[in-house]
Amino acid sequence: MFSGPPADPATPTMPANSVPSAVPAVGEMGEISEGASGATPARRSWTALLLLGAAGLLALLIALFGPGLMARGTGELRIPGAGLTTVLRTVLFAALALHLGELVAPQLIRPVRGRPRTAVRSWAVLASLAGAAAAAGQIVRLAAVSDLGITETYGTREGGLLLLIANGLVVAALCAASRRPALALAPLAVVIGAEALRAHPEAYSPEFGAALTVVHLTAASLWTGGLLYVLRTMWLWRGSPVAARALLGRYARLAVWLYVALAATGTASTLRRLPLDVVFTSAYGRTLLLKLALMAVVSVLALAARRRMLRDTDPAVAHRLARREQVVLGLVVVVSAVLTVVPDPHWISLRP
């Protein structure tokens, strides 16, 4: 969520057990039509880097101060360490998106005719390890605010689920580093299930809420992580615009169904969890409205990218719009993390 400096030569497909790079391959997220060197492409790349850095800084500020700002004036109890928890959960959600995207997006690439025999570098191992560290950080934070030891924290409901999440992501990283990276689907499914249960400690139909979260989190991770992988691949294929356009088209068809799943589960979750009388007066309601506004921007950018893809043979403009969609999706991930931290709005609702 998540443009880079000038492009490097296309990198050959890496073996499954090779260690991924800790940073994006140089130029992987640059403009697809800027293969030639020169002052203008270099200037644009640095501008893109600055914009990406500004977006990252904005995301960090939202994570650190968002929960407090959203709860201001609502009368809700302050959540200890809410900003740090939001940062850690943002890392966890981003890790899920990156790893799931790398598992699913290659299935879209294989049927593309005339595609270059090159592949982007894998980020799955580092992403899952970062997610595991974020889950472990949440355990330490929980122990600190609860005045419990680490082993005692494991015995609590939330601590036990966070431990399961951390271990699941470590196993997923080991699978990604093996010769059969697809095996990571199993531990990632466990991680998503555990996170869904952790997010629903409430007494009212927690099983239904967890089931909705499983579908919602999976669809969101596939959309976000899949788009990032497709954009990186399109940049690598910048010398083959026909193949790049075909790949974006295949992703767009998948994204339609993911969007439907997100809309359906998001609507159901909202109707279940947010009383109408506190939409504007609760931190949860305010955060949800911000998320809906960002999703509206994502929808407009996605539709614009698909329209240009159908109308133009050169995928450069569609690629640029999809990159902007990716950045806004990154902000959506951060706001979603805020949504998991703010208090349950039922506590301040006047409805019986």
Task: Outline the fold blueprint.
Elements: H1 39-71, H2 82-109, H3 124-146, H4 150-154, H5 157-176, H6 185-198, H7 206-236, H8 241-273, H9 283-311, H10 316-339
Helix pairs in contact: 1-2, 1-9, 1-10, 2-3, 2-7, 2-10, 3-5, 5-6, 6-7, 7-8, 7-10, 8-9, 9-10
Structural class: mainly alpha
* Shape summary: globular
Estimate what percentage of residues fall within beta strands. Answer: under 5%
Please report the total strand number as a whole number: 0
- The chain-level mean pLDDT equals 85
Summed up, the helix count is 10
Which stretches are low in confidence, meaning pLDDT under 50 for 5 or more residues running? 1-27, 33-39
Describe the main β-sheet briefly. Answer: none
| Helical fraction | 55-70%
Please provide the ordered H/E string of secondary-structure elements: HHHHHHHHHH
Radius of gyration: 21 Å
Calculate the terminal CA-CA distance, rounded to whole Å: 40 Å
